[in-house]
């Protein structure tokens, strides 16, 4: 009898813990949007490899287009969530986790601009991978653990590209493959996490 009561109490504590963690999770990012972003990155690499621009600046324009589409997909999905989800109720406080990612993004933009102005294009891929990996750090308590591990993967890929000889900016495959893999895995993590939370527990 005592063991049964202890078991019930532990189960209630576990349910309470899961409820608290679920409430802290950030729902603003869309798994499908992230999956599409990964496909766009791969498509960008295919196009740049098939029809290579004559200059690094041309490649930069190509990756700028990939970035624009990715931002539209992900932040468009976030805007839809913010405006249309009744649980969010258009409360700006729900967007705080997304705002935490702005400092590393701003630093990454500043360093990217400095590299472009100095025509140090070969430093851009490692920089972008590392910055995007750092963007995952603020979400380590508000998104699934797997998302944080994806961020560590981006950091490792950025460090590898930084010291890998011969990987230049005009070779689109490192960027395309790394972001395709990272966004595919990250999108699947978000999608399955969302589906699990929507499934009624017995």
Could you give a short description of this structure?
This protein has 202 residues and is mainly alpha-helical. It has one domain (28-196). Helix content is 74%, strand content 0%.
Can you characterise this structure?
This protein is an all-alpha fold and 202 residues long. Helices cover 74% and strands 0% of the residues. It has one domain (28-196). It has helices at 2-24, 31-50, 56-84, 96-99, 102-117, 124-135, 145-163, 173-198. α2 (31-50) runs antiparallel to α8 (173-198). The longest helix is centred in the middle third of the chain and has 29 residues, at 56-84.
Main sheet, how many strands, which sense, barrel?
Answer: none
**How does the helix and strand content classify structurally?**
mainly alpha
The span between the termini is 23 Å
The total strand number stands at: 0
Strand content: under 5%
Question: Any idea what the radius of gyration is?
Answer: 20 Å
Count the DSSP helices. Answer: 8
Order of helices and strands: HHHHHHHH
- The helicity comes to over 70%
* Average of the residue pLDDT scores: 89
Note the overall shape.
Answer: elongated
How many domain regions?
Answer: 1
Which spans of ≥5 residues are poorly predicted at pLDDT below 50? Answer: 16-22
């Amino acid at each position: 009898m005592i063991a049964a009561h202890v078991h019930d109490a532990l189960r209630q504590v576990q349910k309470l813990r899961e409820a608290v963690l679920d409430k802290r999770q950030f729902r603003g990012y869309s798994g499908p949007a992230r999956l599409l972003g990964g496909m766009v990155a791969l498509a960008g690499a295919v196009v740049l490899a098939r029809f290579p621009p004559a200059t690094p600046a041309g490649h930069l324009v190509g990756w700028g287009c990939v970035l624009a589409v990715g931002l539209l997909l992900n932040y468009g999905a976030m805007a839809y969530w913010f405006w249309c989800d009744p649980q969010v109720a258009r409360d700006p406080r729900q967007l705080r986790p997304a705002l935490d990612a702005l400092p590393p993004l701003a630093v990454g933009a500043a360093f990217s601009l400095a590299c472009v102005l100095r025509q140090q294009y070969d430093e851009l891929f490692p920089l972008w991978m590392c910055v995007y990996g750092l963007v995952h750090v603020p979400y380590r308590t508000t998104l699934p653990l797997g998302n944080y591990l994806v961020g560590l993967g981006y950091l490792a890929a950025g460090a590898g590209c930084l010291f890998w000889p011969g990987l230049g900016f005009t070779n689109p495959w490192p960027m395309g493959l790394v972001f395709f893999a990272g966004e595919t895995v990250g999108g699947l993590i978000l999608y399955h996490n969302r589906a699990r939370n929507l499934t009624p527990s017995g």
